[in-house]
Amino acid sequence: MVATAASAPALADTSRTTGSTATESTAALPTVDVSTALTTGVEQSADATQTAALRLELRTNAQEAAEDARKAAAKAKKEAEARAAAEERARERAAARAAEREELAAASAPDASTADSAPAAETPAAAPAASGSVGTVLDFLNAQVGKAYVLGATGPASYDCSGLTQAAFRTVGVELPRTAAEQSTVGTPVAVSDVQPGDLVFWGGTGSAYHVAVYIGDGKYLDAANPSKGVVIQEMSYYMPTSAVRVL
Predict the structure, then answer these.
(1) Separation of alpha carbons 140 and 145, rounded Å
(2) How many domains does the chain have?
(3) Which helix (H) or strand (E) holds 222?
(4) From 141's CA, which of 42, 66, 125, 180 has a CA 20 to 30 Å away?
(5) Range(s) of the domain holding residue 138
(6) For residue 34, is it within any domain?
(7) pLDDT, tens digit, for every residue of 25-83?
């Protein structure tokens, strides 16, 4: 009986020890704030989404800026080419007008040896009837392509505009007057939209034309253009004539 009584306190002590250990173990577990963790996760996710959106926006803006720059460069190039072409046409027109004015003045000046005795020549009103064909005229003209333009020249090595047309029509028995202004008064006037191969086309008014060429078909004409080009074939749309006559 004494031994049993002594064992009871020991059992009680063991119980107290076990309870104390459980309490200490529970106290040692970390405390987790679930609300704070969730808030932090949401904020991080929002930051990541915002960063991705910003990067996408920057990339889109860069692409749009590059496309705008490309379009602006293409537009500037096109405008520069158009200006250059317009300036070239203006230079050619000015050169042709100046050349024809000088040519007309030279043709109008009386020869010193005959000025007192020879009567003034009248401007022909019409060209003689043709004794050849348009094909002959065009063949002659095509054979002159590449030759030089020289003011006052009538061939065979070089020509000015009216010197070339005069030489071409002479091959079929048609004697045209010397200058573009005079040549614009011969033959039958036709609309520029109705020209046929072999027709003379002019720039300037009837009786005051400053340049002449021959329409060769397919929307093209052949002329002694200027000193920089010489005798060439050109598109009608590049330098549209203002009038035309038919002599064949």
Answers:
(1) 9
(2) 1
(3) strand 220-224
(4) 125
(5) 134-246
(6) no
(7) 445 555 556 666 666 766 777 777 888 888 888 888 888 888 888 898 888 888 888 78
